[in-house]
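# nightly structure sweep
# worker-07 picked up a monomer target from the shared queue
# config: single-sequence mode, recycle default, output format = structure tokens
# input follows
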Amino acid sequence: MLPSVDEILDGALGFAVPLTMTFRRTRVRKGLLLRGPVGWGEFAPFPEYGADESARWLAAAIEAAWIGWPDAVRDEVPVNAIVPAVGAGEARRLVHASGCATVKVKVAEPGQSLDDDVARVAAVREALGPDGSIRVDANGAWTSGEAATALDALGQFDLEYVEQPCAALVECAALRRVIDVRVAIDEGLRKAGDPHRVIGLLEAADILILKTPPLGGVCPALAIAQTYGLPCVVSSALDTSVGLAAGLALAASLPEIPYACGLGSGRLLVDDVSSDRLLPENGRLRVRRATPDTQAAVAMPREEMAAWRQRLTAAYASLTEPGAT
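# output follows
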């Protein structure tokens, strides 16, 4: 049985953590930390998400704090560095500072050109060297024609895969038939009404991106991986260390992780809610939980805390409705 909404909100902590740079058009990551009998969970759906979509994020937080996760089959996971839509010089700096052998590069940023993307990826390849792996993420911003043109230009840098090149799976499938780069699907899976029954996914994807909050938690994400049988990359949702622990639990539970995981995003936070931050060392993360502490946590203003409690209450109502995800 689910805990009551009053039980969930009892002792909830709000956080507002600044980012090192603009990411997803924001400079501050906000949400609630929820304490349950087995640990802490994080409820931090992005501002544009309504109650139905946020309900999955709440389910993941409840799983983390009240239910727990499957046993791990490994005690550490490889992770990639993240290079947002920055200039070439900053891209080089981020790669050198990361210590990772795999880098995910954001492309197709609104207001930027393909030349900007080429310069950024070229800088990453230069900093990473010939043996490192580069993956690019377009967040569904291209048409299939634009994606083919862009990937023809970016292909010289030996891409590991392209993540969500087009918003529509039918376009991703069409693109996949004419390019030599693997296609990974993120939004096309996690934004589906039923992630277990996504029409056209197997035609569009070589790889699945699994994020625990929007998929409802570790166990639901594991079940989705089993449904499709494709290689998976576990990635974060710009989480604090409390939320990253859930992603680590998922990566530690998968039978295989053939690709580095996108769980090195703790470096995008200026502060964190725990002094025991989940930051990669030599491109790897040790599987563990993080506990919030008052020294590291950046508190949320009271009026915002009230608004977040309302968001959680609405998500809870959506989660507990008959037929809810």
